[in-house]
Amino acid sequence: MGNTIFSKIINKEIPADIVYESDTILAFKDIRPQAPVHALIIPKIEIPKVSDIKGKEHAQLLGEMIDAANKIARDTGISEDGFRLVFNCGANGGQDVYHLHMHLLGGRQMKWPPG
Ligand code: 5GP
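^ thats the input. predicted complex w/ guanosine-5'-monophosphate below
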């Protein structure tokens, strides 16, 4: 099993504000929110980063992550105005936690380009 802080959240060893859970997916509020709505959607299996994803093997899991994001967006009332989904990958991508996670950000106007 992995040893990131997110593994501990999956195993309920440390608390998190969980907003969605299924057999395969967990989503919880980011501890340092960068927008009025900021959730992290993670698979329960250990995939360190986007570049470890294998399309054929993980396609369903990724679809479930998008479904979860859309559900959370609807539940939090940000779906209609829009939102942003972000995967940070590796050092230059700004990834801090090496357990795959998708950021759902919304509730304010996003800017482009990102920092
Ligand atoms: P990354 O920079 O790896 O894409 O994003 C990691 C995210 O995890 C950051 O936005 C950070 O605030 C969040 N985070 C780190 N540790 C914890 C934690 O213990 N609990 C929660 N809920 N979020 C965390």
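The CA atoms of residues 30 and 39 lie 5 Å apart.
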